Amino acid sequence: MRLRRVKSARQRNSGKSAAEMEAKTLDDSASANLLEIPPFELQPGEEPRDAERYQLDELLRYHDRKFIANLYVALRKRAPTAAELAVALDELRSGRCTKIEIIESLLTAQSDGQSPIRVAGLSSPILRRVSRWPFVGYLLRMCSGFMRLPVLIKHQQEFEGYALGQQQNIADYLNEVLAPTVKRHEENAPIITDLSVTVSDTVESVLILSDSLAELSARHADFQAGLQATLERLQIEQAQQAESRLKLQADLQTLTDAMTAQDQALDKVRQTQAEAIAAQQEFLIQEENLIVEAQKVVLAEIQERLSEQLFENQQNREQSISQDRVRLSSVDETSARRVAARAGATPGNEAIDSDQLPGTDLDSLYAAFEERFRGPRDVVKEQLAVYLPLLIEAPAGTPLRPVLDVGCGRGEWLELLKEKGVHARGIDMNRVLVNQCTARGLSATTADAVDYLHTLPENSLGAVTAFHLIEHLPFRSLIELLEETRRVLRPGGLAIFETPNPKNLVVGACNFYSDPTHQRPLFPEALQFLLEYRGFAQVQVKYLHPVEASPFQQAEPGAQALDGWFYGPRDFAVIAYKRRMQNQKTCVP
Questions:
Q1: What CA–CA distances, in Å, run from 552 to 326, 561, 568, 571?
Q2: What CATH number does the domain containing 529 carry?
Q3: Mean pLDDT, to the nearest integer, of 139-164?
Q4: For 237-293, what is the HEC assignment?
Q5: pLDDT tens across 35-44, in order?
Q6: Quick check: 481 and 406 in contact, CB under 8 A?
Q7: How confident is the model at residue 476 (pLDDT cuts 50, 70, 90)?
Q8: Which residues constitute the domain of residue 497?
Q9: What is the mean pLDDT of the chain?
Q10: Are residues 467 and 449 in contact, defined by beta-carbon separation less than 8 angstroms?
Q11: For tag attachment on the chain, is the N or C end more exposed, with fewer CB atoms within 10 Å?
């Protein structure tokens, strides 16, 4: 029903013709022209002129607000502020001050930097000052009032004429404005009637909409009530959750306090344990230092005794060997003569071994052979320097872990170790080579390798080295050398054995036999196997000194094999370590 009323109201509003709408538009434009009402002024419209001297009548012809505004523009050369305008209007409208008194107050309050403004027609400043005295001023003002009474009567008559004139101006203005307004109202009466109908329809529509709005308000109230209930339920749940959270926080705080107390107790236990461990470690270090010092003293005494005993044994052995050689020489000479006699040979045709010739110095012979074929000392030292990092890593070369060079020869390795501050000594069976080493200030002794190692105690050396020695030994002597080397090395001690490489065919088939004292070439993998079998650990093969300027560097089939056979490394070294004891924490590098 409400929707039908709204639709009917809309249809009545839309049923007007286009002509009626156009006529209404013209009437509205005419009405707009008639409604242009001119402003009504009861005071002069012009503002006071800008000058430094005014006549009193120029300022008094304005009234009320306009008087105050023009007075500030004339005397202060600016518009009054809102506070100044309010105060001045209050004084004027309440009758506490007259216009002349307000003019006098503004003239008196002129600032120092402003040029003085004068108003003709005012009383003198002295008279104004005297008029403010308590009693004299009152009499003076009374006299002045009596004297000005005719002027005041004239002013009253002028004011009455002015008021009647202003009333006539107001009547003329109203007649001028109201006549067009009444005429416009009569012309717009039909339009107003239609407008009232439209307004009534609009009011009816508004009432219908207000009913709908009331219904929506009721629904909104129900929804808001449900929402409020939901919010209250959520607040209750949040309160319960907050209570549970507080309880959990309290439990967590209790648990945290317990854990903190436990951690503090553990810290105290750890601190106690750390102090006990530190004291124990300090005691162990002191005890170990005492043991080491005692071992050093005992070891020094043992080494001194062994050196003396070794020297005596060596002298006795050399004497025995000399005697045996003399006996063997005589026996061999007799046997050779017998054989030659049996064969019918003459003494000039006897085949006698040079080792059996009396007076032959093989040590000097081999020393000269080494000088010819071993190479310059500087080159040999440069080639041997590759082993220095191994000694540092072992570690070896300290007073408690010295280095023994077996078959030291001319002493290039011993000299290099001495330059690096490494504790080392050497042995060799060649007396001439040993004398050359001692002449250079090196520690060297004439002795057989296996026999000398027999005299050393277990775990007494940090490293054993042998460069181009093992190819001179029979197989049984080689095995004995490896066994004794492992015995005298300290746990983690280093063993280095360098020998010619038979994988280079030129070395294995030709150059190896340039030294008549060589027994047989040793295959790298075979020597590696022997050391591993005798109990050495981390055994590795290192190939050294390849031939330069190989023509088989190109990547052709078989070129790599030819390069290895003819231009490959001329030497190799087997590097091994004595196994550490199981209770030691550190590992061999």
A1: 55, 9, 10, 19
A2: 3.40.50.150
A3: 72
A4: HHHHHHHHHHHHHHHHHHHHHHHHHHHHHHHHHHHHHHHHHHHHHHHHHHHHHHHHH
A5: 566 666 666 6
A6: yes
A7: very high
A8: 363-578
A9: 77
A10: no
A11: N
